[in-house]
Design a protein that fits this description.
Layout (H helix, E strand, L loop, with lengths): L1 E2 L5 H13 L7 E3 L4 E3 L2 H11 L5 E10 L2 E10 L4 E9 L6 H20 L24 H42 L3 H15 L8 H25 L1
Antiparallel strand pairs: 1-6, 2-3, 4-5, 5-6
């Protein structure tokens, strides 16, 4: 993060008051396939807006085109004139279309706001990964160093997978929202149609791991859109 002044004390006081007033939002987003919950962008914004009262704080987010991706920057301001920024988060959509860019922007906005204001926006299912890391102390050996490097590589791979899943999840959510709005259907109807398409196209769909299952769901969402488009054209 970067700020415009060396010691933005008034802004920090406002943030302290904000933290006192903040009520963590409920996980109001449901993923019907993976049975996990998360806070939607609007849920994060509502929680922040409610806790900003009387703090002198405000925020805005800037979206820009950077190379082949999009950049999102979150700026928190104080009525004193002080401000602090998140820096620019650059994401490259997997698909270069309106839905791809829209889902990336939503993802970046949600995660930057959550980070800047301390919002717990996702299920925390990996908090115990390192709880026993330092229970025993021993002399550093070559084997220990090799084991540490192996663990670091594994953690890096896991983080990359989690990032890919998060981006695909945002893409899937955007497609469901697009289908619901375009064809005036409920989210439940849309996800049911996608599920029927997926189970017909992929054997053992429900037993797929999270990443391939999400990729298959996005592919089937595209197929559902094509089928609905054909139905509309026949009318």
């Amino acid at each position: 993060m970067s700020d415009t002044q060396s010691a933005p004390s008034e802004l920090f006081k406002g943030m302290a008051k904000f933290r006192e007033q903040l009520k963590q939002p409920e996980l109001n987003g449901d993923n019907l396939y993976f049975k996990n919950k998360y806070v939607t962008l609007s849920g994060v914004q509502k929680a922040i807006d409610a806790a900003l009262k009387g703090t002198g704080l405000a925020y805005f987010q800037k979206v820009s085109n950077i190379d082949n991706g999009i950049g999102v920057e979150t700026i928190v301001t104080h009525e004193s004139g002080q401000m602090i920024t998140s820096g620019i988060l650059v994401l490259t959509p997997q698909k270069k279309d309106v839905q791809g860019y829209g889902s990336s922007i939503t993802y970046a906005k949600r995660y930057q706001l959550s980070a800047m204001f301390g919002i717990s926006s996702d299920d925390d299912d990996d908090g115990n990964a390192a709880t026993n890391a330092n229970q025993k102390q021993s002399r550093p050996t070559q084997n220990n160093q090799q084991q540490n490097r192996s663990q670091q590589r594994s953690q890096t791979q896991q983080q990359q997978t989690q990032n890919e899943i998060a981006k695909l999840q945002a893409d899937y959510d955007a497609k469901v929202a697009y289908l619901s709005k375009t064809y005036q259907l409920s989210d439940t109807d849309v996800t049911s149609m996608i599920f029927q398409e997926a189970t017909a196209k992929y054997k053992n769909f429900q037993k797929l791991a999270k990443l391939p299952k999400l990729k298959a769901s996005i592919e089937c969402a595209i197929s559902v859109n094509e089928n609905l488009k054909k139905g509309v054209s026949k009318q």
